[in-house]
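F.,

This is the one I mentioned.
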């Protein structure tokens, strides 16, 4: 009987050991959640300047929401490495930095042109950093983006995140960048440009507005060129990351505006004369927004001319984008990935010198098939 009682007490004590809780936890009210990080080249040679966007809980709460002050902050520090800059920021904070909510990383142009390897290496070692976070480049300093006016969203980081999720231009995530680097390929990101504008929503005051102005071309973690906004949209379409777009075209008889939707792409590779040939096919539907002069009834020829003009214009944009990247040896469409999947032995042969091959020997063909589905009530076919 005593043995049974002793056994029961032992089981209870053992269970208590497993219910002791977590002794290394950090309470949520002792954390500050970074939503966006901005990395610049510092004025001191060899150092970087890091800026972090963080929400301010004391102003998000009902007690602080009526203060009229912004519910977010931007804190900066410089250091020889990302880790040093973070340590200097952490020293001045009353809460522990957490990276679990970081969704946007913006690099300043000067820093991006020197290379983003150190930042990407640091991110790769952070277990809480999401590989789905979006990467962008600022024309000028990244810090100048951190205090944009979030007219339609709650904070600057929300604005930048929506730029990517809305799929209006390029949509580049951390995972794609790491994949491109490991496979000796390139990638492209959206470029941002800040400007001061008078805003009705801000009682006519001059505030900072940020626009997407095109793309940045990267090769081996280093920015090597830029894309126009039209070229960046073409690349995004080829990557199947463009939701819709509007384009104006002109034929010998008409000037027309179209909105594309149901946008898709198919990229294939085949062997031609012993070398890989990449076939890039853009497919999409469109509706006419306007036609001047108005198409006459059953003017099939005029409609086909508009389709042809749209196809030629879109193909030209993508060709220009690929040529810009090709000149820098950057495979921004990750064509090498498709080569590896279809012809792995050939890829193993070309992979070590893929950047050089892209620059000097890459063969590709672009084909665009835009089909106008709706012509509007002014024309009847």
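My design for it:
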């Amino acid at each position: 009987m005593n043995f049974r009682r002793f056994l029961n007490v032992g089981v209870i004590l053992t269970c208590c050991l497993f219910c002791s809780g977590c002794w290394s936890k950090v309470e949520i009210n002792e954390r500050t959640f970074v939503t966006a990080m901005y990395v610049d080249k510092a004025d001191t040679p060899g150092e970087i300047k890091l800026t972090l966007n963080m929400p301010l809980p004391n102003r998000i709460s009902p007690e602080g929401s009526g203060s009229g002050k912004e519910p977010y902050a931007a804190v900066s520090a410089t250091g020889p490495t990302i880790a040093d800059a973070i340590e200097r920021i952490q020293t001045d904070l009353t809460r522990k930095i957490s990276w679990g909510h970081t969704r946007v990383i913006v690099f300043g142009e000067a820093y991006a042109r020197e290379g983003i390897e150190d930042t990407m290496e640091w991110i790769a070692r952070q277990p809480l950093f999401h590989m789905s976070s979006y990467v962008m480049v600022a024309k000028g300093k990244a810090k100048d983006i951190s205090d944009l006016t979030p007219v339609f969203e709650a904070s600057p980081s929300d604005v930048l995140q929506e730029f990517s999720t809305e799929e209006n231009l390029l949509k580049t995530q951390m995972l794609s960048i790491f994949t491109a680097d490991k496979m000796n390929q390139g990638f492209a990101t959206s470029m941002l440009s800040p400007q001061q504008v008078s805003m009705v929503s801000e009682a006519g005051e001059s505030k900072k507005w940020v626009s997407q102005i095109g793309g940045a071309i990267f090769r081996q973690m280093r920015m090597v060129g830029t894309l126009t906004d039209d070229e960046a949209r073409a690349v995004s379409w080829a990557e199947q990351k463009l939701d819709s777009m509007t384009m104006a075209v002109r034929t010998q008889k008409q000037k027309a505006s179209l909105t594309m939707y149901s946008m898709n792409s198919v990229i294939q590779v085949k062997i031609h004369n012993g070398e890989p040939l990449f076939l890039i096919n853009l497919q999409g539907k469109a509706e006419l927004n306007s036609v001047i002069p108005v198409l006459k009834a059953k003017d099939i020829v005029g409609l086909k001319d508009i389709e042809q003009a749209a196809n030629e214009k879109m193909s030209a944009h993508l060709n220009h984008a690929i040529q810009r990247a090709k000149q820098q040896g950057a495979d921004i469409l990750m064509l090498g990935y498709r080569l590896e999947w279809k012809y792995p032995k050939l890829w193993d042969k070309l992979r070590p010198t893929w950047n050089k091959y892209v620059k000097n020997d890459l063969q590709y063909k672009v084909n665009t098939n835009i089909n106008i589905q709706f012509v509007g009530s002014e024309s009847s076919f």
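Residues 300-327 form the longest helix (28 residues).

Talk soon.
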